[in-house]
Design goal:
The complex is a heterodimer of chains A (about 325) and B (about 750). Chain A is an alpha/beta fold. In chain A, about 35% of the residues lie in helices and about 10% in strands. Chain B has about 750 residues and is α/β, with parallel strands linked by helices. The chains are: A alpha/beta (about 325), B alpha/beta (about 750).
């Protein structure tokens, strides 16, 4: 018997349709209508997250399947294939979480501008139960309200993902302050994935040096000066910011920033961008900047207080 | 004195019959003669009958005498306990000096002088005592003995003493014992209890004549090379060389001592001839490769040097790798770099030095250097100063063009051909897509690159389904399953996303994995002393992060990721565990003339014993020219059911040798080699300057005297004892001499001749 709160799970999440550099090239082959319909389907899919399965839900399934049939094209047929080796920012579609696609697109755009990382500018939304999360080692999970309880399958999938090489960035995107309901619920769900409590990253952690010298891990807000995370096998697999990182990155439809960074304004927003870059670099390079060569260089060009006082050995753990 | 000799002789009869037994024989003879006289009475001429009768009588008398077997017994008698044993050292060290003026000549002169004054018994000695008839016989033996063993000589004399009844022993030698006595005697030449017992058992005085040289012997010798028996790659280890110099003047010029590692020159050090005779040179040696290394120290021969056989010495070092230093250059951070880094960092024996290009070419205006932790790419430091310190260099999707690496490609080529390991991992910025075509890097890659043309980017962003090639089926790098069929099926079920295109295998390369269109995806090859490999995809990371399958299946795939990388790096690093031919040879020097026992273990690419494999084996002089030589001699024995072969090779030369073994295993030509030393027998050359220390100790302990060069001017003191005369008898069987037989034939023949001539019957 299906639980009453069971959610619709599409065999292929529309938001997970692969779209990398090649996809950009091939978009010219799509009809404008097809693209609009596809975006519409994605929007509907997001809404559907809140709908329990029932008479309305079944109607929605029929409607979505119809839309999928309309929007099917050669690229989408390969939806089960891995999306390639390009980096993708993938966000978890979980009830209670928002759709950070536009913020993640801006995030990816900044990564492309500032670094050599080969990253797709279009974010991917994916359900935590989906085996395809293993195509995206870097996951993002945001929300400003209490998140729904993850299914056991989602918990197991995420646990395997994160313990074998994945990284989950959790972002509390409460408008005026960190949302306590999200905070409470996300901690509960994370504890189901990894029983160990989250711990604060000290200011000397390599994340604060993975690309930028980072003073403060702020976002659109600067409520807290710290990051928290869960550590497995000598590195963090979950990183949690309560400063609405996505809010600092998000742009309006006219190109400007959608939300003001408070209280620091644009300099704070730049710090948020730098945190976003460092998070991706940490996911890709781990403790690379703790290597002996880098530490020696940083000591020679010492600036600020984030350089560790002692030089770790080349093989030092985080 | 010679007058002690006395000679006597007498006749004895061999036939010991009694008179009654002889009487019938005598009567028979007389009867024959009487009958003969009776028959001759009718002879007309009296003179003829008398002659014939005398001849017959002489013949009968001769036969009768022979029948009695007469024997002449000679007796040589002398006074016992008055003889001196003269023992002359005929070891090779006694050959020092020019022709006619060797130590041996001086020894013979002193010994013959002695023999003129006293009764002597002659003996030669080197490794054992050898009685000789006289001085001439001893001289013919010459100074050729390979050892000088005083203790063994004295033991043999002591055992013979009861029968010889000697009164003294005179040992004529340069004093350079190189056997047990030398080993037991300390620096002060004190004798041990065993030697004292031997002298006591000898019971007579031991005198000695020490033969010294007029001029010091001109020689330079490597007494020993001292190094730890184990070393680590790229870790300096001290090597000490003990040098002994003699007979050289300040004007003799400098000497040059060289140190070679498996035939290759690694260090040279000049040494001034002026200075102490014994000195130690301290050098450092930096082992580059894992395996058995033979260090040979050598000093060039001098004009007129006493011997060149002691101008070199050896030490064997087993070099292992304690840490593998890996230089990892990545063109950009990616999932492939992230999982490779995790893999390498998980191995505590890996010392990883990474440099990632973190800023894109158009990022400069968005990134301020002072805000970041970016460091300049240390191209010069890496390729000019540190390259040789790495065991493995990895280019991961690394376009070296923008980083001025191209000007250092020659250094990189020297690094690889000199024994380094080099791996290229593919991607959008690698191989042809990364501008490798037309650069020197193509010379040591196992694939030939194609130029980009038209819309060809040199990289395809699609899934490549994998196929093992025939070479891959038997190559240790890609053995993910012990069963060959399962391994092939496993690879056929796997894929990599993204692949570099336009690659062709070179002649010396082994393409192990292709895509389903036959395009090389994984290829490896030998480059001089080194090895290189290309994995033409940036999608290997997906094996470390599998997206499907049960937990067990995913675990298997993750394990295969690590196994493939481990095996690939191990092969590139020439890990002996992946060799199909593994040799075990003695690490201690082998005595000259002894066979060399070498054990060969033959294994297949998946580590199982290879049964029934025939190998070719050879034993070559180890030089830089022969270290890569092929085996020519054929050993017909095949490996047993454990994959083992026991080789017994007979070295034709001494010094540093190389055992080379070749075989076809799984269709692949395999070669293995191991160095060893056949030590020349140079005990006689360990010490060249005469030393009377041991002779002095021996003579003092036995109550004897020590003289130099020409020996004593008078008789040597004897242990005179009241002993009966000694007599020696010799028997000469007169009756069996051929002259006697001829005499009888002559008598009978004359009688017959005269009889016929005179017309008698």
């Amino acid at each position: 018997m299906r639980p009453s709160n069971a959610l619709i799970q599409l065999p292929i999440p529309l938001g997970a349709l692969p779209c990398g550099r090649d996809c950009v090239k091939r978009k010219s082959a799509f009809s404008l209508v097809g693209m609009l319909v596809r975006k519409r389907a994605d929007w509907l899919d997001s809404i559907s997250l809140w709908l329990p399965l029932g008479p309305i839900g079944w109607g929605r399934v029929v409607m979505l399947l119809g839309l999928m049939a309309v929007t099917v094209h050669p690229r989408s047929v390969q939806g089960l294939e891995p999306p390639g080796n390009m980096i993708h920012l993938a966000w978890l579609k979980v009830p209670g979480s928002g759709d950070p696609s536009s913020a993640l697109a801006a995030w990816a755009q900044e990564i492309r501008l500032r670094t050599s990382v080969d990253i797709a500018t279009q974010a991917i939304g994916i359900r935590p139960e989906d085996p395809a999360i293993f195509h995206y080692p870097l996951l993002y999970w945001s929300g400003d309200k209490a998140v729904a309880k993850l299914s056991d399958q989602a918990v197991a999938n995420l646990r395997l993902h994160l313990s074998t090489g994945g990284l989950l960035v959790v972002d509390n995107v409460g408008r005026t302050e960190a949302n306590s309901a999200f905070d409470t619920s996300i901690r509960a769900e994370l504890q189901r994935i990894f029983p160990q409590p989250m711990q604060r990253l000290n200011s000397g952690h390599v994340l604060f040096r993975s690309f930028y010298r980072l003073d403060q891990p702020v976002g659109r807000r600067a409520d807290t000066r710290e990051l928290e995370g869960i550590r497995v096998s000598n590195h963090y697999v979950v990183l949690y910011t309560r400063n609405d990182l996505a809010g600092a990155l998000q742009r309006s439809q006219f190109g400007g920033f959608a939300l003001s960074a408070v209280p620091g304004g644009e300099s704070q927003r730049e710090q948020a961008f730098r945190l976003a870059v460092n998070l991706v670099m940490y996911a890709l390079c781990l403790d690379y900047k703790d290597d002996h060569t880098h530490v020696m260089h940083l000591l020679r060009n010492r600036r600020g207080s984030h350089v560790p006082a002692a030089v770790p050995a080349a093989g030092a753990e985080e | 004195m010679p007058h002690l000799l006395r000679l006597d002789g007498h006749l004895e009869w061999g036939l010991q019959w009694s008179v009654p037994a002889l009487l019938p024989v005598a009567l028979l003879a007389l009867a024959v003669l009487a009958l003969s006289a009776f028959n001759l009475r009718t002879v007309v001429r009296r003179k003829h009958s008398v002659i014939l009768l005398l001849l017959r009588a002489a013949a009968v008398a001769s036969l009768g005498t022979v029948l009695l077997q007469p024997t002449w017994v000679s007796t040589r008698s002398q006074h016992a306990g008055r003889k001196v044993a003269v023992v002359v050292d005929r070891s090779q060290s006694m050959a020092q000096g020019t022709a006619g003026q060797q130590r041996f000549d001086a020894a013979m002169l002193a010994a013959t002088d002695l023999a003129k004054r006293q009764s002597v018994q002659w003996f030669a000695m080197s490794d054992q005592l050898q009685p000789v008839a006289d001085a001439e016989a001893l001289r013919k033996l010459g100074p050729r003995g390979e050892t000088t063993d005083f203790l063994h000589t004295l033991q043999a004399l002591a055992e013979q003493q009861p029968s010889r009844n000697l009164a003294a022993v005179v040992l004529v030698s340069d004093g350079l014992d190189n056997a047990l006595l030398h080993a037991r005697a300390g620096r002060d030449h004190s004798l041990d209890a065993d030697t004292a017992d031997v002298l006591e058992k000898l019971g007579i005085p031991l005198h000695a004549i020490h033969i010294a040289d007029a001029e010091p012997v001109r020689d330079v010798a490597i007494a020993a090379v001292r190094a730890a028996s184990f070393g680590f790659t790229r870790t300096e280890m001290p090597v000490s060389i003990d040098l002994e110099i003699s007979g050289l003047t300040k004007n003799s010029g400098d000497l040059t001592v060289t140190l070679r590692d498996n035939g290759q020159l690694v260090a040279t050090k000049p040494v001034a001839t002026a200075g102490p005779a014994r000195r130690t040179l301290d050098l450092t040696y930096l082992p580059q490769h894992v395996g058995s290394h033979l260090l040979q120290a050598e000093v060039a021969a001098l004009p007129g040097e006493a011997t060149e056989s002691n101008n070199r010495a050896w030490a064997q070092v087993q070099v292992v790798r304690d840490r593998t230093r890996v230089l990892h250059l990545a063109g950009h951070p990616s999932w492939d770099t992230r999982f490779l880094r995790t893999h390498l960092r998980a191995d505590p024996s890996v010392d990883l030095v990474s440099f990632y290009v973190m800023v894109g070419q158009g990022s400069g205006s968005f990134v301020s250097a002072e805000d970041t932790t970016l460091i300049p790419f240390p191209t010069r430091e890496i390729f000019e100063e540190s390259l040789s310190s790495f065991d493995l260099v990895i280019f991961q999707d690394f376009p070296f063009g923008p980083f001025q690496v191209e000007q250092y490609l020659r250094q990189l080529q020297q690094y690889v051909t000199g024994g380094g390991a080099f791996l290229v991992l593919g991607g959008r910025q690698s191989l042809s897509a990364g501008g490798y075509y037309g650069t020197e890097i193509a010379q040591w890659l196992p694939v030939r690159l194609q130029p980009l043309a038209g819309e060809d980017l040199g990289y395809v962003d699609s899934t490549a389904h994998l196929q093992l090639t025939p070479a891959g089926r038997s190559h240790p790098v890609v053995q993910l399953d012990a069963d060959a069929d399962s391994n092939g099926a496993l690879w056929a079920a796997r894929s990599w996303h993204g692949r570099n295109t336009g690659l062709q295998a070179t002649e010396n390369a082994s393409v192990l994995v292709t895509d389903d269109h036959g395009q090389p995806l994984l290829a490896v090859g030998e480059v001089g002393q080194g090895r290189s490999g290309v994995l033409a995809s940036d999608g290997l990371w997906a094996w470390a992060f599998p997206d499907q399958g049960s937990d067990l299946e995913r675990q298997r795939i993750r394990g295969d990721y690590h196994k493939l990388l481990d095996q690939l790096t191990a092969w590139l690093l020439r890990d002996p565990d992946l060799d199909s031919l593994r040799l075990e040879a003695p690490t201690a020097p082998i005595a000259q003339g002894q066979p060399v026992h070498v054990r060969v273990q033959v294994v297949t690419s998946n580590g199982k014993p290879a049964v029934g494999v025939s190998v070719k084996a050879d034993l070559l002089p180890l030089t830089e020219a022969t270290k890569d030589a092929h085996a020519t001699a054929i050993w017909s024995t095949a490996s047993d059911d454990q994959g083992r072969i026991e080789l017994n090779l007979i070295p034709k030369e001494v010094g540093a040798l190389l055992v080379v073994v070749e075989a076809m295993v799984d269709g692949q030509a395999c070669r293995a080699s191991v160095p060893l030393v056949v030590a020349p027998n140079q005990a006689e050359w360990q010490q060249l300057q005469p030393d009377d220390g041991i002779l002095r100790s021996l003579t003092q302990a036995s109550g004897g005297k020590l003289w130099r060069d020409r020996g004593p001017t008078g008789p040597v003191p004897l242990m005179v004892r009241d002993l009966p005369d000694l007599a020696e008898q010799s028997h000469d069987d007169l009756w069996s001499r051929p002259e006697v037989f001829a005499w009888i034939i002559l008598l009978l023949g004359a009688e017959w001749t005269f009889r016929r001539r005179w017309g008698l019957a």
